[in-house]
Amino acid sequence: MSTPRPTHLDHPGRAVWLRRDAEQVSGALPPLLAEAERLARTVSMGLHGRKRAGPGEDFWQYRHAMPGDVLDQVDWRRSARSDGLFIREKEWQAAQTVALWVDPSRAMDYRSADAPRSKAERARLIALALAILLNRSGERVSLLGVDPPLPPRSGPAQLSRMAMALTAQDDDRPDYGRPPDGPMPRGGRAVFLSDFMGARDELFAGLASAAQRGVSGCFVQILDESEETFPFDGRTVFRSVGGSVRFETQRARALRDAYQARLAQRRAELQDVARRTGWQCLFHRTSESPRKALLWLYMALGGQD
Amino acid sequence: MLSLGPVAFLSPWLLAGLLALPVLWWLLRAVPPRPAERIFPGVRLLLGLNDPEVTPDRTPWWLLALRMLALAAAIIGFALPVLNPQEDTLADGPLLLLVDGGWASADDWPDRVARLEVAVDAAVSEGRPVALVHVAAGPPASGDLPLGEAEALRTRLAGLEPRPWAPDAAPVTDWLRGLPEDTPAFETLWLTDGLARDGIAPLAAELQRFGPVTMVGTGAQLRALTAPTLDGGMLSATVLRPEAGPEESRQVAIIGLDPTGTERRLATVTAAFAPGETEVAVALDLPVETRNRVSRLRLEGVTSAGAVALADDTLRRRKVGILSAAAAQEGQNLTDPLFYLRKALEPSADLIDGVLTDILNAAPDVLILADVGRLSAGEQVLISDWVEGGGKLVRFAGPRLAASQGGPGSVDPLLPVRLRAGGRDLGGALSWGAPKALRPFPETSPFAGLDVPADVSVSRQVVAQPDPDLAGKVMAALEDGTPLVTGTAMGDGQVILFHVTANAEWSNLPLSGLFLSMLERLSLTATGRRAAADLDGDTRIWTPEIVLDGFGALVPAGDLAGVPGTRLAGEPPAADAPPGLYSAGGQARAVNLLGDGAKLALQAPLPGVAYRGLGAAAQVSLMPYALLIALGTLFADLLASLALSGGLRRGGGRMAREGQAVAPLLIAGLAALALGRADMALAQSDSLSEADQAALLATSNTVLAYVATGDAQVDAVSAAGLLGLSRTLAYRTAVEPAAPVAVDPETDDLALYPFLYWPISEGQAQPSDAAAAKINTFLRTGGMILFDTRDAPLGNGFGAGGTPNGRVLQRIAQDLDIPPLEPVPQDHVLTRTFYLLQDFPGRHANAPVWIEAAPAARQIEGAPFRNLNDGVSPVVIGANDWASSWAIDADGLPLYPVGRGIGGERQREISFRFGVNLIMYVMTGNYKSDQVHVPALLERLGQ
């Protein structure tokens, strides 16, 4: 169960909040988990082995005993079938740690009329599906930027804890997200899922500091289609989701090119940061299939060994 | 009220709001359209960008004009503009609604009632007390003015009906004279039928004593039909109009029974008014057989008792067969016994002569045997069979007859009385007595009422044996009581003997006019009817059989009291003797509103009376239109505002979201449409492609269809019911119908559907002639209609005196080719086309179901059923409300409860089985009936 939030308990409409939380726990969580499971099942690959001999559970190969091998390692059953001695080697299975950050900001709640999902929903789905895949191959997964912190663990319990943490709705969320600055497992991997639409200085400083902590990983920029195409016209007041930023224009259509240029610039900068720190970048739209992003992420995390 | 030409404003002070428009202009101009507000996370990227274009903050002038228009339209709308404002309200105080309500008002009766409603509505809004007096129905029983709340009167208006006689103004005038002294002054609105009648002017004068009088309505459009007469063998009647006018043509339908006994239109004749003529005679030469079956004439397109003329026996020429034993003798015309008969009968009857077999083959009404003595045994059998089947045998005495009678055991069965041998001579050279005159006819005689001329005398006659029952057989007697004419019933017919010859040898009766009248009566009563012309002095009580209602429909007379014949002959029809068919003593005569030679005339304008037309009465409220314009303009304004703020640039989701704001406006617009008149509703466009699609659907699938009654609820039940039946058929049988469709016999092609379900509802319109023809074709070419009056618990089916729906069915069926019916017999093929059924319940059970009566059929030995279904019944008629028990909703669940509990479900199941059987019957016809031959076939195979 999620830890109760004191703020809600003090709230006058406590029962209402409790009820809402309970409904979310019982209602929203299983769909998310189920959907993530379904998504993860499409990338079924089995255990994430190291393709080399080492400590592990699974059989890897028999090889002739060499001088220097310990007698304990001899597989007597195999050796009895021939003259030589054989050593039974197992595949090296070492658990990695992958830290996930799902941008909790309000900007992620945006969903244009044509979009199937909000950006936050898509980010949560990809994060959880990735966690399921990683968990299946024995990796440890942690979630950054949540309170209370979710240390890296593996197993189904961790998945449901993650799901719980992802679906918990915090009311005092920032308008735009900034990358977490907490501790990250050294030598591990990290995946940042966000729209990266925050203020430029804040955002890139955070990204750089995260990347500099000896962690490699992926930035996944999740955008709504309308954020790429800018299909607006007429006299319009644009307002961020949280309402902290406003911008008024007389004719929105005239701004489209300038906006798209700025978006391209933002992406170039993101790619630049990634390149400099050895990260990878994926631009994902909510109108695209989440499978594509999931597969890409899985390959990017597994393929770098 | 403020009037501007034909338009008036009921709340003109609201128009002052128009003065505020300039202020609004100034205000609106200062407020630019609001910018669209959008949530957009990418807004951070926009910060610092410069707007390349600047648009004015001011509202464009055309948008302002649009808004002004909307507001002006709304103001005008709420000022309650009306077209053709009603200004009946000449005075305040009580209002008397005087309704003529005779047959002449019936044709435009709905308009009259609508006009009354307008007047009552006005009175309600002004709070005036109102009284309603129906002239034809007579003045109110109470001695004072029956004033009441106008609101309460409203419910009475729907029940007002015209009476089938002319309104009599005199009793109302008397009633007005008798009003108490303290009766307040009142205004009168008189819905007149416009025809000139005695008593109208005094009534108007009397009404003017109390206040202003307005007469509404005119009789100029009235058309009427006089009673049919027979003129030189032609059936003729006159179509009347009250006013000479332009050329005009009208159809007169001649209605009667067809040879199968079904009432239908026998002929149609066109009456064309020449310009300036007020009457036109129509004449039609019908074959005697057809003419004899004519029951009434109807002027098409006029629903009034004055447009229906009932026929009686004046129309019928009887066929009289004459047989004489004497061989034709040259040059002896005046002594020929047949000469006088021919002369007497020729004007009124068709004579048949020849040998006996020829005569009987021509099916005469009356057979006259003049001085025929012995008949051969074969002839006797022929004649007595014919008499027992309803014929009337009239025999005249003569030397041969006298000679043939009187022997021991020589009883002639074809004589009403036994005769003495010989007869007697009166006043001859060898007798003591003088020729005898006649006694007045007894009351029970068919000759009752005929004047007996003093100079008729009888000098020789045959004499009846004094039997105990002789007195009952005497129809006419001599002064001394000797029977002169005797008659007796024999089977369904009658045998009558004139104890004198048909020529002038034995008496001078054949030379008198009385002879003519007597023969006429005899020949006319031959089929139980009697001539109309001689009701004068007839004191018998005539009982009404069928009467007309004000609209000209035939209704059973019910328990109306009978009237003496003198009343029928003397005065025009009125409440005590409504027009209709009356009978007395097995004879019948028609009482029609307009006799031969009647005329219609319009009432001349009366001094001091205001006149208004009925048609111009409609006061049309323009408010819905004005509000609709306002709403439309507002909607345009909304679109324009959206366009200005870029909301229209892309369709899709944004438009849908804006649509949520638009929807209430649209709904309001539709509501305004509904407020408007029905004719504002968009005419349903039945384009060709739709008809083609329906035809395609109906021909590529089996489609069950129902007749749209116009009653939405009934139609919905029919649709759901046929859907349920279609599903059941698809589940259980090889018949897999598509979704049921509604058809309108007026417009749709019926040939595409094998089966029509026709629920009867009270408000159903009569099918037009074209539609009736279409339905008849449908029925004759193998279609089937299931008529369902849906009112089994209400009682007596669809016959006369039945339920309201039953009467509607009867009215509809009158133009249709419906064969004689019988309740479904136990062994009808309908009971075993798919399921074996004993009864046919729907939502109601136990009401009989009627189908075409089968011809007498024989039972085949060993077969369980009679072979009686060579023909498939074109109609099935019942009252069990099948559609309700079949009806299912979209989920397949029954819509209406049937019965109670398990039994009810069983009833529903049986009802579905009936439906399956019925459709199987429609589809396979008498196929199942062929199985009656199976035992015979098996037996043959066995050999």
Automatic annotation (TrEMBL), chain B:
Keywords: Membrane, Transmembrane, Transmembrane helix. Residues 704-923 form the DUF4159 domain. The keyword Electron transport does not apply. It comes from the Bacteria. Residues 8-81 form the Aerotolerance regulator N-terminal domain. CDD domains: A4_beta-galactosidase_middle_domain (cd03143). SUPFAM superfamilies: Class I glutamine amidotransferase-like. The chain crosses the membrane at residues 6-28, 61-83, 622-640, 661-678. It holds the Pfam family DUF4159. PANTHER family: BLL2463 PROTEIN. This is DUF4159 domain-containing protein. It comes from Oceanomicrobium pacificus. The lineage of its organism: Bacteria, Pseudomonadati, Pseudomonadota, Alphaproteobacteria, Rhodobacterales.
